Amino acid sequence: MMKPEEAQDGVDSGARRWRLVLGGSSQEEKQQMSRDEQQIDAALSALYDADDTRSASLGKSAMNVARWLGDIRGYFPASVVKVMQQDALTRLNLHSMLLQPELMQSLTPDVHLAANLIALSKAMPEKVKETARLVVRKVVDDLEQRLAQPMRSAVLGSVNRHQRNMRPRPAEIDWQRTIRANLRHYQPQLSTIVVQQLIGFGRRRSSMRDIVLCIDQSGSMASSVVYASVFGAVLASLRAVTTKMVVFDTAVADLSEQLQDPVDVLFGIQLGGGTDINLALGYCQSIVTRPQETIMVLISDLFEGGNANEMLARAAQLVTSGVQLIALLALDDSGKPSYDHKMAQAFANLGIPAFACTPDLFPELMAALINRQDVALWAAQQDIVLA
């Protein structure tokens, strides 16, 4: 554990260490701790102080395991983190939950449940992890059933209305042009037009745009990661676009090759830890081959742990090169993200829209980006407040 700061206000540093070890500090004692010590105390208390954690669930109202893991990785060495993860598995009663056959029948799909299971997956024995994957699969299947079709419709509906298609499918027919082109075939006795030639909107060809999803996998972004993985898999299934998915904390992982299965993506993610947006944007910049045709969605609360000035300079370079870059401060149902307001304003000053987006609106957002619409105007039309 990191060393507490030197004694302040007459309070002995050694005494404060003992309070962290023993717990049960009074409110007055907590106020005398440094900010780091208060966060250490909160992380320890979340796991060890509450007696009812043994019967806790991993749902939305339970301790936010993903965020908690991010906290303990920041304050304790790896060996201690491993012990605390194992204790969390026991005290949250996770082993017995996942080994009960009736769990799958009684489970209500929940994004927070999936995020918490993924956060602890690295500490799970293989037998328990197998069941955890089944639980996450059920959550993912539920999300795909709800979100996949709107995403496909929004993206594939982004048609080029300036190009005629003489053999359109029903959904692609341009009825105004078709009627005008067939007016000479009007049949008075039938009071109708006999259509001899259909004219449709022309779809852009395969890979008309390149999409890069750059996802912050710190604990605070856990539910956003789950949604983004599902959307990434749906986008990857569409020939109209080329999709890459990059996740990061203080390191970067390119999961593009796993996008055929969002569950594989999720179990390849290590929720929690620090944040280096600059490093992530640098990698994403290196894989951009057609900047004028690239959409880059940075999903992050923008709390940068790396070099903030370099990060902003890199973001500016991406925009200057022609990349459509936006920052989603959250991709979840809350709509009220916690984020770095100063950094979001700095992004806005570079012409990079920064706002939160619910999963239900994300397909429409992608369609707006593909059609090169004014994203700020689109957000205003959806009553979304820009940062």
Summary keywords:
387 residues; alpha/beta; six-stranded mixed beta sheet; two-stranded antiparallel sheet; 17 helices; globular; disordered N terminus
Structure write-up:
It is built from 17 helices and 10 strands. It has helices spanning 13-22, 27-31, 35-48, 65-75, 78-91, 94-98, 103-106, 111-120, 126-156, 175-181, 222-236, 262-267, 277-286, 308-321, 341-349, 362-370, 375-381; strands at 160-165, 186-187, 192-193, 200-202, 209-216, 241-248, 252-254, 294-299, 324-331, 354-357.
What percent of the residues sit in helical stretches (DSSP H or I)?
40-55%
H/E series: HHHHHHHHHEHEEEEHEEHHEHEHEHH
Strands of the widest sheet, in order across it, are 7-6-5-8-9-10
Broad structural category? alpha/beta
Strand content: 5-15%
* Average pLDDT figure: 79
Q: Enumerate the spans where pLDDT stays under 50 for 5 or more consecutive residues.
A: 1-11, 52-63, 159-163
Distance between the termini: 36 Å
How many strands appear in the DSSP assignment?
10
Characterize the main sheet: 6 strands, mixed
Shape: globular
Number of helices: 17
The radius of gyration computed from the alpha-carbon positions, rounded to a whole number of angstroms, is: 25 Å
